[in-house]
Amino acid sequence: MIMSIPSKQLSLDLSSEYISTIVAESGDVMSEIVLGISEQYEGGEPSVVISEDNKILKLSQMMSFIPDPLHVDINSRPMLKKLYTDLQEIGNRQLEKINEINRLAIDFLDDLSVRSNYNNITYNLELSVESLLKMYEVKIEPLYGSMSDRLSEYVKAVSNLLGVKVFCFVNLKAFLSEQRLNELFTMTRYYNVNLILIEYRERNEICPEKSYIIDKDQCLIVK
Questions:
Q1: Which whole-number Å values give the CA distances from 51 to 3, 17, 34, 168, in the listed order?
Q2: What is the 8-class DSSP label of residue 92?
Q3: Is residue 3 classed as helix, strand or coil in its secondary structure?
Q4: Using CA atoms, how far apart are residues 106 and 4, in angstroms rounded to an integer?
Q5: pLDDT tens across 87-112, in order?
Q6: Cα–Cα distance between 191 and 194 in angstroms, integer?
Q7: Which of 71, 64, 30, 66 is nearest to 50 (CA)?
Q8: CATH no., domain 2-74+140-222
Q9: In this predicted model, what pLDDT tens digit does every residue of 25-76 receive, in sequence order?
């Protein structure tokens, strides 16, 4: 899998066997890359291209972009939509349980109606798995632990539910120690997903790591 940034003549050969790190020493270049990716997710002009076997892939389907590693949303709209779809498929195979829940709910509502002073109460007589999930606000419980634990949980959930294969973090090395980064990398390698870091300066190298450094003169150095 290849990730390209044409404006910088930069091409990353992605692999789950090493971390791909972009170091932008110039603040202007850093903001251009980060804003370009963000705007692309919002429907702007493509600044990044991901391809595999000479086929261009849709960025939003293949890559999760995390500009702020301190705040990741494990219950985003796409995540909940896919979670509900999966749970609905399972629930629809258990019609007896659904019918029993529906019967008990109708009996309860009938009793409320009889005991109330209103004679014109109506309600939906059919309970779907989807309405049940929404009623009980079913979601993925975030992991409350270290930052590396939360990021690992996020990567696993997004990869499993949405099939995302690339995770791109901005300035992650500023928040995680070398040990924690290596733990995160070990997990991403296990799940066969690609890890990209965008950093504003070169830091301690994580093994294995492939670095693409755009220096202040906008010269590219590959290490």
A1: 7, 18, 19, 15
A2: T
A3: strand
A4: 57
A5: 999 999 998 999 999 999 999 999 99
A6: 9
A7: 64
A8: 3.40.50.11940
A9: 999 999 999 999 999 988 888 899 999 998 999 998 999 999 999 999 999 9
Residue-range domain boundaries for the chain: 2-74+140-222, 79-135
Count CB neighbours of 68 within 10 A: 10
CA-to-CA separations, 17 to 20, 55, 187, 213, in angstroms, rounded: 10, 22, 11, 20
C-alpha 98/C-alpha 127 separation (Å) is 7
Cis peptide before 208 (omega within 30 of 0): yes
Structure-block tokens of residue 215: 């220096």
At 33, list the tokens.
Answer: 């890359």
Alpha carbon distance 199, 25 (integer Å): 8
C-alpha Rg value of the chain to the nearest Å: 23
pTM (two decimals): 0.87
- Residue tagged 């309970």 (tokens): 127
Place of tokens 């709209």: 77
